Amino acid sequence: MEVNRALFDDVMVPNYAPPEVIPVRGKGSRVWDQEGREFIDFAGGIAVSCLGHCHPAPVRALQEQSERVWHLANVMTNEPALRLAKKLTDATFAERVYFANSGTEANEAALKLARRWAFNEYGEDKSDIISFERSFHGRTFFAVSVGGQKVYSDGFGPKPGAIHHAVYNDLASLEAVISDKTCAVMMEPLQGEGGIIDADPEFIRGVRQLCDKHNALLIFDEVQTGVGRTGHLYAYMDSGVTPDILTTAKALGAGFPIGAMLTTAAIASHLKPGTHGSTYGGNPLACAVAEATFDTVNDLTLLAGVRKRHDLFKAGLASINARYGIFKEVRGKGLLIGAELVDEHAGRAKEILQAAMSEGLLCLVAGANVVRFTPSLLIPEADIEEGLNRFEAAIDKLFGQVAKAG
Ligand code: PLP
Questions:
Q1: pLDDT tens across 271-302, in order?
Q2: Nearest CA to ligand 1 atom 9
Q3: Residues with CB under 6 A from ligand 1
Q4: Architecture category of domain 5-54+300-405 in CATH
Q5: Ligand 1 centroid, distance to 68 Cα (angstroms)
Q6: 152-202 pLDDT, tens digit each
Q7: DSSP codes joined into one string, 39-51
Q8: Which of 45, 55, 60, 224 is the most buried (most CB within 10 A)?
């Protein structure tokens, strides 16, 4: 059988449009495709591959667990799940953990828990959920409807009700929609898919105060920001604000699918047996990999290294921008970095990504105007330097003449 990009169009649902390149191997921050071409990985599987490719700690954990027990389902618990939950609760505000298989599912659990908590505590009128424009919370119909991007949620028929959207970083707009009927406010402490937009410190504190005033739960979606991505174990830890529920996924499994919802014992008590569940959630393989990943990331030296790498990226991108003048702003935290194009080049982020791939560099976009970088938290400095050289070569091909003429 010939396995190539053409086969994708023959056998796959066309909801994705992947490039010709099919990677077959990865090590650290480098990957190789079917032809043996090498790429530096600034994409990190969309903020997932936090330890790079095939890091020995999760590889060993997976190998060892794969010879013990693979699956028991939610009718029984298992050792890796219990150990991981203990470590997550020890390291965060949370006292209880629910395991899922993805970020979307962790959010689905958080939203259902908030509704059930409000129903039990205050009655059926307290069901409003508020999130923010441009937010992204995943693709189940509840999660995508709570997300603030109609392009993802429209066209699927009637949406779940009692969902409202305010403007991110605009407290007055939240004040206008929040009320005693609000059961939860869901937000990303730094919007990822929406364009790498950080929450202002006063805004995030104001959201917490408004939730307290109206007895609403504050849910932080840390699916993209969590597990070291911002240079802190979780972004909330650097915000001065503690949520009531936190969702985490992506980097939690370093590439093995797992998600988790963290909360307090009092709130968790509303998800009684039978109220929610998942056949695979808390699977021993996933939890063993996540435990080894968590042990590696939950380390002050590693987290300081993320902040140092942030500075290297920022400096490198600034010097490229000094030569080409294509970015309006380079922003983000830790290794969640976005470079927004100037108005003159608006809409060309995808083109840059494609040009970068031709130069042997994988990166991402966050919307049409922002090039996004979410590499391994352990990416070697030499790979950052070489990757930025390749990035500059791509920029030169696309914008060199413009910059020289200008
Ligand atoms: N929430 C946030 C903030 C995300 O960035 C994403 C994915 O990009 C999700 C939820 C959905 O996660 P998953 O794709 O694992 O379902």
A1: 999 999 999 999 999 999 999 999 999 999 99
A2: 138
A3: 46, 102-104, 107, 136-138, 188, 192-193, 221, 223-224, 249-250
A4: Alpha-Beta Complex (3.90)
A5: 30
A6: 999 999 999 999 999 999 999 999 999 999 999 999 999 999 999 999 999
A7: EEESSHHHHT-TT
A8: 224
